[in-house]
Design a protein that fits this description.
The protein has about 220 residues and is of the alpha+beta class. The protein has five helices and eight strands; from the N terminus they run H-E-E-E-H-E-E-E-E-H-E-H-H. Strand 2 and strand 3 form a beta hairpin.
Length: about 220
């Protein structure tokens, strides 16, 4: 019996199927349910969206483990404090709980984006001094000259770092609770009033207007 008549040995995969030869695999066409030929490049059903630049940056300030006593015993969960900002004049803080750290952080990020505020700035610093209290937390923030940098503690520095403020002097005078300090910082930024809205600035504008009107009247009289 000639050697050409002998059958080639079959190679079987671990799953029990016959292994396809390379020549056959190269010429084989894959088809969809309707029988149309499919392009191998588009064989995936899900097409990944192009990753564009992020509009907001986020930072996880603290992750704590909390417990709750129920009928069956203690239920352990995680609490996350997250800040979100666009490195300009928008910032937000969110707190959420979850069964694991990832769930808690994702919930906190969504809450922070919903609770974002827009505050006023004076160049690269805040408009004026502010002192805000939230329960036991007491945060003092002062504007600083260019080149000073952010002189602040951990929680305040994390939140201010997500804004466009580059020069700031801050001091925490009360409780060290990070959640309360974060909300106090947000309240302090929210209370910022631009220089044009100050009472003294309004009085100065009114005085300059009266001076200009008096000067116009005097010039008209001289011309007559």
């Amino acid at each position: 019996m000639p050697e050409t008549d002998k059958k080639a040995p079959r190679v079987i995969n671990k799953s029990g199927t016959l292994k396809m030869e390379d020549k056959v695999a190269a010429t084989r066409q894959t088809r969809d349910i309707s029988g149309k030929k499919m392009n191998r490049r588009n064989r995936r059903d899900r097409v990944r969206a192009e990753a564009g630049p992020k509009e907001f940056d986020e930072i996880t300030i603290a992750v704590d483990r909390v417990s709750r006593t129920v009928a069956g015993g203690r239920r352990m969960r995680f609490k996350a404090l997250v800040a979100v900002g666009n490195h300009k004049n928008k910032v937000g803080v969110g707190v959420a709980k979850g069964n694991d750290v990832t769930t808690a952080v994702n919930k906190a990020v969504s809450k922070a984006k919903k609770a974002m505020i827009t505050f006023n700035m004076d160049g690269e610093t805040i408009c004026h001094e502010s002192r805000t209290k939230v329960t036991g937390a007491d945060v003092l923030m002062k504007p600083a000259a260019p080149g000073t940098g952010i002189i602040a503690g951990g929680t305040v520095r994390s939140i201010i770092g997500l804004t466009g403020v580059k020069n700031l002097i801050s001091k925490s005078l009360g409780s060290t609770n990070k959640v309360n300090i974060a909300y106090a910082v947000i309240d302090g930024l929210k209370s910022q009033v631009p220089r044009s809205g100050w009472i003294g600035a309004k009085a100065d504008k009114a005085a300059t207007k009266t001076e200009k009107s008096a000067a116009k009247k005097s010039t008209k009289k001289e011309t007559k």
